[in-house]
Amino acid sequence: MILDTPRTAGGFVPAGQTIETAAGVTLSASSTDASVWVSSLDGKPLASSRRMLVTHLTDVQNTRVKYGERDMRTLLEWGALPHLARAGRALINLKSQHSTELKAWALSTSGRRLAPVPVKAEDGKLTFTADVAAFAAEHGAVLCYELIAE
After folding, report:
1. Residue 150: is its pLDDT beyond 90?
2. Which of 1, 50, 51, 105 could form a disulfide with 149 if both were Cys (CB 3.0 to 4.6 A apart)?
3. How does pLDDT run across 111-134, given as a tens digit for each residue?
4. By CB neighbour count within 10 A (0-12 exposed, 13-18 middle, 19+ buried), where does 145 fall?
5. Domains held by the chain: number
6. CA-CA distance, 85 to 83, in Å (whole number)?
7. Domain residue limits at 79
8. Of all helices (H) and strands (E), which one includes residue 138?
């Protein structure tokens, strides 16, 4: 599945594969399947947006959840908190007229900035790696990132 609009682009990325959108977003999942998308937060198209949200979702389950079979078709027990997120990485590549100005921040699930994330700007593109486990010791799983030109 690929979602491709001027202000939100992304989709489901199987492990080891890459998807490209007409909106200028290229996503590669390295270690596990993921749903990844970029959304403009300032109402502008992604290529000209100065503030965006990147969401990187791997498999998220409750602790002690139980299924009837390996392919998880029949739920036997809901499990309980805390939620467990599968560690995974995705390479995010975004065409942007603000590529040299954009900074990336790992966010908590409440939207609080946790830590800066290294980015690379080259040839009008911003590239960074979303990594669910990169800040696990300090903050737990990271599922969202803010891109902002400050």
Report:
1. no
2. 50
3. 999 999 999 999 999 999 999 999
4. buried
5. 1
6. 7
7. 2-149
8. helix 136-139
109: three-class secondary structure by DSSP: coil
Q: What is the pTM of this model?
A: 0.90
Check whether 84 has a pLDDT greater than 90. no
Cα gap 101→68, rounded to integer Å: 50
Q: What is the pLDDT of residues 26-49, one digit of tens each?
A: 999 988 999 999 999 999 999 999
The Cα-based distances of 87 to 12, 21, 125, 136, 146 in angstroms read 16, 25, 26, 9, 19
Q: What burial class does residue 106 get, using C-beta atoms within 10 Å of its C-beta: 0-12 exposed, 13-18 middle, 19+ buried?
A: buried
Determine contact, residues 31/2, Cβ cutoff 8 Å. no
